[in-house]
Amino acid sequence: MSGGQPFLEVKDLKIHFPTEDGLVRSVDGLNFSLERGRTLGIVGESGSGKSVTSLGIMGIYNKRNAQVSGEIWLDGEEIVSAGAETVRKLRGNKLAMIFQDPLSAMHPYYTVGKQIVEAYQVHHNVSKKVARKHTVDMLGRVGIPQPDRRVDDYPHQFSGGMRQRAMIAMALVNDPQLLIADEPTTALDVTVQAQILDLMHDLQAEFNSALIVITHDLGVVAELADDVLVMYGGRCIEFAEATTIFDRPEHPYTWGLLGSMPRMDRPNLDRLVPIPGLPPSLINLPTGCAFNPRCAYEDRTAGLGTTVQPELNRAGGSKHLVRCHLPTEERQRIWLQEIKPKLEA
Amino acid sequence: MSERGDALLKVKGLEKHFPITKGLLQRKVGAVRAVDGIDFEVYRGETLGLVGESGCGKSTTGRLLTRLLEPTAGSIELDGRDIAHLRQGQLRPLRRDMQMIFQDPFSSLNPRHTVGSIVGAPLRIQGVKTEHGVKRAVQDLLKLVGLSPEHYNRYPHEFSGGQRQRIGIARTLALRPKLIIADEPVSALDVSIQAQVVNLLDDLQDEFGLTYVFIAHDLSVVRHISDRVAVMYLGKVVEIADRESLYKNPRHPYTVALLSAVPVPDPRRRDRTQRERVLLTGDVPSPINPPSGCRFRTRCWKAQDICATEEPPLVARLDDPASHQTACHFPIAEDETVAGRAPAKTSA
Q1: CB < 8 Å from B in window 114-153 of A
Q2: Which of A10, A75, A128, B156 makes the best surface tag, with the fewest CB within 10 Å?
Q3: Does ipTM top 0.95?
Q4: What is the interface size between A and B, counted as CB pairs within 8 Å?
């Protein structure tokens, strides 16, 4: 972190895929930064570009199919323009990833131990014996009982929760500074999810890594994230501290997400307040604001909504950014008077 | 639900054991006891939520109720008639009264059939007389679930997940059934779409007086939609109660653990030192060799000797009304301090 530069900085990241049907703008101009020890939650629905963002940062894309532009600075190093070999050395070492489905992310023919040992030896010049000892330690750290025995098991011999723990062990074995978790608990049952969320929280504190959690579940975001980035149609539409997102959200889409979600900590609502319509196609984004066909307040923008794409502007909270044509005071008024009472009724 | 209608569905001692066979002769060497003796009733016009983690037998129960599977033992009474062992030919008329909504809107619609033929199939198969023909009936159904009648000639791949689930729901409604078994109907959908489908199911229930059995693992969705909730663990119902009663005063340690594990969408509540979360250790035991006595005892912090020897019956515990039944020797009282959970009063 030389000269006040943030640990991770993403500048105007664009990831486009040319297809026969047209150009798919999966990520279209994304900016954010993240410090070590902090957690960023990226929220969005399927097709909002959240997973493609993570693959972009990890450098897991085929340069022949994907058009990537912009800058990703990791600890003073730019990785979009860096060569494949440079990124390969970073991957698994300085940056690591936890995938959604541990069964398909691990190789079924090799023991769990062998796969973690391999990940360690790629980046450390040590003997197999040392790497294995380190692996057993790591499996113990993530809460796998009898790690010295389980290290020789195959992935299918682990339960879903255990497998996810093993994958976290694999991601952490090289002590990465940036950890990206893409829907880390979506495939798991709630009781196991609770264990894994606690584990990720504790390990992050221990390793002081920067963590990006990608999810569609606002509950998971509330559990882990310091800051939240809401994505829609490949762009950031709202960014704020987690408390702001839940207390004083200003984008109509974020209101919709909160209204769509039944909550156990509140009295039961008679009806959910869903967002009408469907998420947009990334090939033919609506002109103007990408959210305008589903927005209930589009008529209050004096026609701007369907013609001009709104900029990501400062909003009420600290660090708070919102991409919306409505003035801040108007949005705050709508939230307080029209939306919030409905959700807490 | 102060006034309770009569029971539309009565399930008694329902069991499904899947045999495990070995060798050339398919010798039976054991059984997966997926559903192992459950009793419950579903009242007319209500929604019964069935929750539990993967492998608890909730989906198998759904398939038994619709008779996609034949139970090993027990009875299923629909409208006073035992349907547990009806033969294939006798089942067809039954499907008019009982339909199923499936989880995956991608694999439950035939990709080579048009929407019209998918939604109209139940009408054609059952030989239902429609006033203005099948096409008109189907278009009315499509309108009912929020699709456009012009979608009649399109194919499933032209629709998004949420729209496909609506097509599935239209097909379910074609015969105007009394009972709908919905197996994870919204879990494959995005949050914003999930809410649309939940609201649609709500509206249809009001309009047609439908009775639902709603199978799901998402406790927040189940709380939203259900009148009563049954919690399953390893092939057994461990607790069944009215919604408010279950979510406010869960009695079974498993229910308590399950409810406390749901992430609360409120960042201020995540202070880990005073959170009210019960963390279960270990994994769900295998349904091939379930633990003796109470099946939850291997993961329960309250387990004592009796739990290993005697299976707790599903009855009302403490001062609960008869409608709140718990299968536990040591049910949890309201003011009890649970391992890792501060009593509600002090944490406020």
Answers
A1: none
A2: A128
A3: no
A4: 127
